[in-house]
Amino acid sequence: MKNADSNPSVSNGTSKKHAVQKWHHTASSTTILWLAVSLPLVIWDIGYVFGRPHTMPDGFLHWPLYVPYALYGEVDHVYGWKAFNAKNGFTAAQTALNLVETVMYLVYLYMLWTRADKAFDSAKRTLSGRDGALAVVIGFSAAVMTLSKTILYWANEYYSDFDNIAHNTPMDLLTLWIIPNGAWIVLPTYMISKFGGDILDGLTLASSQSVKTEYNKHEGSG
User: Fold this and answer.
1) Full-model pTM
2) Integer Cα distance of 28 and 124 in angstroms
3) What's the pLDDT tens digit per position in 177-202?
4) CA distances for 65 relative to 41, 47, 49, 84, 152, angstroms
5) Inter-CA distances, 58 with 63, 84, 132, 193, Å
6) CB neighbours (10 Å) of residue 76?
7) What angle separates helix 129-159 from helix 179-221, to the nearest 10 degrees?
8) CA pair distance 20, 29, nearest whole angstrom
9) What are the extents of the domains in the chain?
10) Which residue in 7, 24, 38, 116 has its CB near the most CB atoms, within 10 A?
């Protein structure tokens, strides 16, 4: 009986199997849905912060677009008159990072919609090659920024004795601050897991192919 090594058809089949092994990135539905919801909200937030004081109560830009911030500025004083009058730079500083993140997410989505592989007949957008690698690195970096900045936002409250939110009732704090802001911890963590998994898969595949190539070279010279 011939073993697989002596069977040309088997070895050729094995070679073909290795040859077609290809890394690609497929955007998850959860990621797309989250970006569809979060990006307009973040852009809205950027407009409010950089438009202060005109976007605040009694400002000429306040009504109707930024009316909800009258309530939120009372819930979280980082967004209210207290921080603005004190010239607290944290609000604008974290918003500047929001702007960078937003641009990165938009670049990711642009690449996803304009450079998707035509070969994959699927409802989900798929990228491969250098475009896929670049999109994943951008998405991963943006998600890490979002998570890190949100944790910093929470840590700022913790280390300042909850100076900006301690006045709220437990129910108001839960429904108007913890749950809304918590979404920017849970979903970016999920995205980091997905993007990071794709990066690890790509590095593992590249490393495996590199090892096989070196092995084949040694076999050929032997």
Assistant:
1) 0.84
2) 8
3) 999 999 999 999 999 999 999 999 99
4) 12, 10, 13, 19, 28
5) 9, 14, 47, 43
6) 23
7) 140
8) 26
9) 28-203
10) 116
